[in-house]
């Protein structure tokens, strides 16, 4: 590694040290999982069932944001141990001696049953459980952090609402505004448990604000219906898609 590489590595270590000093054990954070996991995570062998379950959840979370609780600091520099609550339909129980005897099994040995639990009508019952990960501290973000939509996406969502409202009456626009607000509230509730809904919340808020603006425009100008072409503040066409 050259001088520049050494300086860069030292800077990264210093940044991670600063970040890790601000991490509080027992607090919840949003972990931003990259689409491509580091080799240390992708290629490590799973020695126990718990490690295998954690690795499966980590691969499922690639490219997403997950809620985690910090439980301690990792053995490697700049890492923390966290728990993630997941929903599973599999459960494992250990048989008692009486149960083993009832099944015709030899008593005095350990028997584990792994499978699913079903109710009286055959529906699978799900359970919440915690899996443990060791993550770089730089992946953590405050729970209060909000995702900001880029300007072109803001314009796109506004344009979609303007097109949908074109030709609507005042009462129809009012109903659409109420429906948009209900969508915001629904997504906000989902985002409490799953931060992947944060972007959807932001988009829904933009759409609701645009419906409100259109409603004010129609009512303020005593229009019988909304006309996209005569609305000076309307976004008539979404911005073109930019390919990188």
Overview of the structural elements:
- This protein is α+β, with helices and mostly antiparallel strands.
- It has two domains: 3-89 and 126-141, SH3 type barrels (Roll); 151-230.
- The chain has seven helices and eight strands.
- It has helices at 3-22, 39-42, 49-60, 97-102, 151-165, 170-193, 198-220, and strands at residues 28-32, 65-73, 79-88, 90-94, 112-118, 124-125, 127-136, 140-141.
- The longest helix is centred in the C-terminal third of the chain and has 24 residues, at 170-193.
- It is elongated.
- The two termini are 31 Å apart.
- The model has no long low-confidence stretch (mean pLDDT 85).
Structural features:
elongated, 7 helices, alpha+beta, 244 residues, SH3 type barrels, 20% strand, three-stranded antiparallel β-sheet
What's this entry about, in short?
With 244 residues, this protein is of the alpha+beta class. It has 7 helices and 8 strands.
Task: Set out the fold topology.
Elements: H1 3-22, E1 28-32, H2 39-42, H3 49-60, E2 65-73, E3 79-88, E4 90-94, H4 97-102, E5 112-118, E6 124-125, E7 127-136, E8 140-141, H5 151-165, H6 170-193, H7 198-220
Antiparallel strand pairs: 1-2, 1-8, 2-3, 3-7, 4-5, 5-6
Helix pairs in contact: 5-7, 6-7
């Amino acid at each position: 590694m050259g001088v520049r590489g050494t300086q860069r590595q030292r800077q990264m270590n210093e940044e991670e040290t600063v970040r890790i000093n601000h991490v509080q054990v027992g607090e919840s954070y949003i972990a931003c999982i990259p689409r491509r996991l580091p080799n240390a995570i992708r290629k490590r062998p799973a020695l126990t069932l718990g490690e295998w379950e954690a690795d499966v959840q980590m691969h499922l979370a690639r490219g997403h944001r997950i809620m985690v609780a910090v439980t301690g600091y990792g053995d490697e520099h700049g890492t923390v141990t966290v728990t993630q609550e997941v929903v599973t339909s599999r459960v494992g129980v250990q048989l008692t001696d009486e149960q083993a005897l009832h099944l015709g099994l030899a008593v005095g040995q350990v028997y584990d049953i792994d499978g699913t639990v079903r109710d009286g009508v055959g529906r699978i019952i799900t359970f919440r459980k915690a899996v443990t990960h060791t993550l770089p501290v730089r992946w953590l973000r405050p729970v209060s952090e909000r995702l900001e939509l880029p300007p072109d996406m803001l314009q796109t969502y506004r344009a979609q609402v303007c097109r949908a409202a074109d030709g609507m009456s005042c009462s129809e626009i009012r109903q659409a505004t109420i429906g948009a607000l209900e969508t915001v509230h629904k997504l906000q509730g989902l985002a409490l448990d799953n931060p992947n809904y944060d972007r959807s919340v932001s988009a829904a808020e933009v759409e609701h604000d645009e419906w409100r603006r259109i409603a004010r425009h129609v009512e303020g100008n005593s229009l019988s219906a909304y006309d996209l072409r005569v609305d000076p503040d309307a976004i008539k066409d979404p911005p073109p898609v930019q390919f990188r």
